[in-house]
Design goal:
Length: 399
């Protein structure tokens, strides 16, 4: 009997952690939608929702198996982020931060990495990618001071990181190409001061406040270099800069999907706008615009899926660490942000006056998408590098 049971357990199908996460998200969806106003008013994700997200594996999805994580394939993790963004912008953004932070800290030395995850793989990490501080070299490490903006998720983080300009005698230390040397500092969240600065137009629930360190002596062991060879094995950890724009793309596509969802839900109520001859869903003008919007959304979904699959193939082949792939990813992020903002604008316009109220999800999606499109990964100036790459490739092909 025991042998039979043992063989039976070995023949049972293995659980798919990615699918388990999506099931958990679906179960949590009604509560997330019902608490949208609460999330905005608090300007953070409520602690109990953070714990629910933690329990479904959000903070461990890109943590390696060696440290108890799920180590999801990159496209699978992007689907998780997109699914959460479709439910709520702020929660989707926090999901993106959770994924990126896990990949970012994977570049840290083994000793620091072990300390970050000493309590398990569900550690919440956040930080700021802007070089908002200085790290003055001293005998015992570095004397750090600074003020870092946009630390999304700092209200529930266990560890916080920031980029520092390394200095000696008050002057920047030269780094690659003569630019100032940059290093990342990681400290437990309790060591940082959080400034209440997140009063904004959109993504209000992300709690993206400023974080501050005031003349803090930090050991060398809490620092790491940004451009180092991968310290964790596995394709996820081979090149961070190439993957970052695709995370942003997953977020904006998920938000655009939710905006169309909300417009369709409004039309299906039978709403008829003032002075309109027929209900929205019977109007050919509405149907025409909805058709155009649907085509744009389909193009955005397809572009992001193709770009993510291409980058993941490079990661699996060990060829991801290529500057051209940074440009390709940024091209997709920029186009996707612009397209998805256009979708939100069109949906808001079609909805009429009912969309202007705080109770309307459409106005919240509109604001969240516009704020997301202000991110450095999605700025229109990125097209300059895209154009340069296209010119160089055309010359190479001609030769």
């Amino acid at each position: 009997m025991q042998l039979h049971e043992k063989n039976k357990s070995h023949s049972a199908p293995l659980r798919d952690p990615h699918q388990d996460m999506l099931v958990g998200i679906r179960e949590l969806a009604p509560e997330i939608k019902a608490r949208a106003a609460e999330i905005e008013a608090a300007r953070r994700i409520p602690p109990d929702l953070v714990e629910r997200l933690r329990s479904i594996g959000l903070f461990r999805m890109f943590v390696p198996h060696s440290h108890g994580g799920l180590e999801l394939e990159f496209p699978a993790g992007l689907e998780v982020i997109k699914t959460l963004a479709r439910l709520d912008g702020s929660i989707g953004w926090i999901a993106a931060v959770a994924g990126v932070s896990s990949l970012f800290v994977a570049a840290s030395p083994p000793e620091l990495y072990k300390r970050v995850y000493q309590d398990g793989p569900d550690t919440a990490i956040c930080g700021s990618s802007q070089p908002g501080g200085t790290a003055e070299r001293v005998a015992d490490g570095y004397r750090v001071k600074g003020r870092w903006p946009f630390a999304s998720g700092c209200m529930h983080a266990d560890w916080i990181g920031g980029i520092c300009i390394v200095t000696e005698n008050g002057k920047p230390v030269p780094g690659p190409q003569g630019k100032p040397l940059l290093r990342a500092v990681m400290l437990p969240a309790r060591d940082w001061e959080i400034e209440d600065t997140w009063h904004v137009a959109g993504l209000e629930g992300t709690g993206s406040h400023h974080v501050t360190l005031r003349e803090t002596l930090v050991p060398e062991a809490n620092f790491f270099d940004l451009d180092v060879a991968p310290r964790q094995s596995g394709p996820l950890y081979r090149a961070l800069r190439q993957l970052l724009p695709l995370v942003h793309g997953a977020f904006v596509v998920g938000m655009a999907e939710s905006t169309v969802d909300e417009l369709l839900a409004l039309a299906n109520t039978g709403r008829q706008q003032l002075y309109a001859a027929v209900p929205m869903r019977e109007s050919e003008i509405f149907q025409y615009e909805l058709g155009r919007i649907s085509a744009e959304l389909g193009a955005a979904q397809a572009f992001h899926e193709v770009q993510a699959a291409s980058h993941w193939r490079h990661a699996l082949a060990g060829t991801l660490n290529d500057e051209d792939l940074v440009v390709e990813g940024t091209r997709s992020a920029t186009w996707l942000a612009t397209t998805c903002v256009g979708i939100a604008d069109a949906c808001f316009s079609l909805a009429g006056s009912s969309a202007v109220y705080d109770s309307s999800p459409l106005q919240r999606r509109l604001r969240d998408l516009h704020v997301a499109a202000q991110h450095a990964h999605a700025q229109q100036r990125q097209y300059v590098d895209v154009g340069k790459l296209a010119l160089r490739r055309s010359t190479e092909h001609a030769g």
